[in-house]
Structure formats: structure tokens, C-alpha cells
Amino acid sequence: MEHPFLLAKGIRIPALKRRRKVWAFLPEDYFEEPEKRYPVIYFNDGQNVFEGWKAAFGTGWEAHTVMRELKQAWGIPECILIGIEHGKRNRVKEYTPFDRHGNFSQEGNAYADFVANGLKNFVDSKLRTRPEREYTALVGSSMGGLSAFYTAFKHQDVFSLAGVFSPSLWAAPALYSLVRMTGRHYPTKFYLSAGTREGKYTRQNLVHLNDVLLSCGFETRLSIIKGGEHNETLWQEEFRNFYRWLHS
Fold first, then answer.
1. How many angstroms separate the CA atoms of 148 and 140, rounded?
2. Three-state DSSP class for 155?
3. What's the rounded Cα separation, in Å, for the pair 71 and 144?
4. Most exposed of 22, 45, 179, 183 (fewest Cβ within 10 Å)?
5. Given the DSSP bridges, would you call strands 219-225 and 189-195 parallel, antiparallel or unpaired?
6. Number of domains within the chain
7. Separation between Cα atoms, residue 219 and residue 42, nearest integer Å
């Protein structure tokens, strides 16, 4: 299979009374080896993850192409890739874990719980996944990166890896104290990334989050890309680096 396909045209998020499209991309040998099971990487902002014609600004990550290239060049095994459509006008509310007063956001937590529970159970029932947390990752950028971090942190029993690219940490200042207070319950690894041309506060916030995670005993990889801007080009390259890192 050379292209992603629509796995669900309207999977329900019961707590939000909304539906969401979900795209999937399968490893090259998926149909040739019917007994084989595969790790899964979930992506926020699924419209932008695969082919550019679906993306908001005409440029996608081409994550499936990157994965194939890494297999051919380095022999890195493939995963199942799952792109989750964002909520359009509800995107910011669904991707923000706290309200402006620092209290937990109902929409942000409902979305995080949907990804970790409802969506993951659906994907595991439809595809030959390796459902254990050791083989389950979540990736996002910008507001989607904030949500990816929060979801993976909240559901450490579900996700063992998270790719957090240019996260909008300014929208969740209560996050640092939550991480300190909650701490590490499972060996979850975080790949944290930002570009030098995204503004100093983006980098400062990310370095601060990295320090907090390390103080709690998490394993991290901090990647600051010289000249990197807040766009799909940076995130495509960082997905490439993240994918190599998780197989290192």
C-alpha cells in the first residue's frame, strides 16, 4: 500500500458529542505477513501528517514517505501510522489541557482520554497492532504537540513514547507543576523539539519542560534546530529524527 487510507470516516468522541476522521498507513509487508503485528504511532493534526493536498497550508509531513525512506536506507522497521483529524474550530479547546484559570479543561481532557482509550481500542480491534504500551507512541506539533505531551503524560500506562514538536507551552503554564506533582509512573520517553526561529520563549519553555522531566526521572531527547521555523518543513524533518531515535 503506497498511500494512507480512511480508517474511520466518523469515529465518535462520546464525551464531546463529536466525530472525527482517522487515516491509517500500513507497513509494506502488512498483507504479505498475515501473522505479523506492528507498533503504532498516533498523530494529532492528521490532515497535515501525510500528503500535502490534505494539509491546511498545502504542505504535509509525508510521514509515510519518510518512514519508507528510513527503511530502505537504514533497515529501520516500519510501524502503523494513524492520523487523527483535528477538530477545526474546536481544535484549540481540544488540544489545551487547562483553561485560562489553570483548571483542567473538560474538552482537552476528553480529547486526551479519547485518544488513549476509545481510539486506541478501535485501532487495536481493526488492525494487527502490538497493543502494549512499549509499542505505542504519540506525536504532535504546535497545539497538537502540547496535546501529545499531555496525553502521553496523563496516560503513561498507554504510551511509552511521545514526539513533541514546537509545543505551545505558553497555553498551559500549569503543566510544569502538574508534571512535578504527578511524577513518573512508567518509563515514558519524550522527544522534545523546537527551532531557533520560533521565538526565544518557545525554546525557553521547552528547555524548562525538559529540565522538569529529567528531575522526575523521565528519559528525554532535546533537539533545538538551528534556523528551524514553526512549520511543516521543520516537523517533517523532526519526525525523521524522532523515528530514528525511537529505533536507536
1. 5
2. coil
3. 26
4. 183
5. parallel
6. 1
7. 20
Q: Which of 60, 73, 62 is nearest to 25 (CA)?
A: 62
Instruction: Give the CATH number for residue 190.
Output: 3.40.50.1820
DSSP 66-125: HHHHHHHHH-PPP-EEEEEPP-GGGHHHHH-SB-TTSSBPHHHHHHHHIIIIIIHHHHHH
In tens digits, what is the pLDDT along the chain, a chain of 248 residues? Answer: 678 999 999 999 999 999 999 999 999 999 999 999 999 999 999 988 986 545 454 578 999 999 999 999 999 999 999 999 999 999 999 999 999 888 999 999 999 999 999 999 999 999 999 999 999 999 999 999 999 999 999 999 999 999 999 999 999 999 999 999 999 999 999 999 999 999 888 999 999 999 999 999 999 999 999 999 999 999 999 999 999 999 98
How far apart are the C-alpha atoms of 153 and 151, rounded to whole Å? 5
Contacts of 92 (CB under 8 A, 6+ apart): 143, 171
Per the CB < 8 A criterion, the answer to whether 151 and 175 are in contact is no
Strand 40-43 versus strand 136-141 pairing type = parallel
Residue 226 · residue 196 · CB < 8 Å? yes
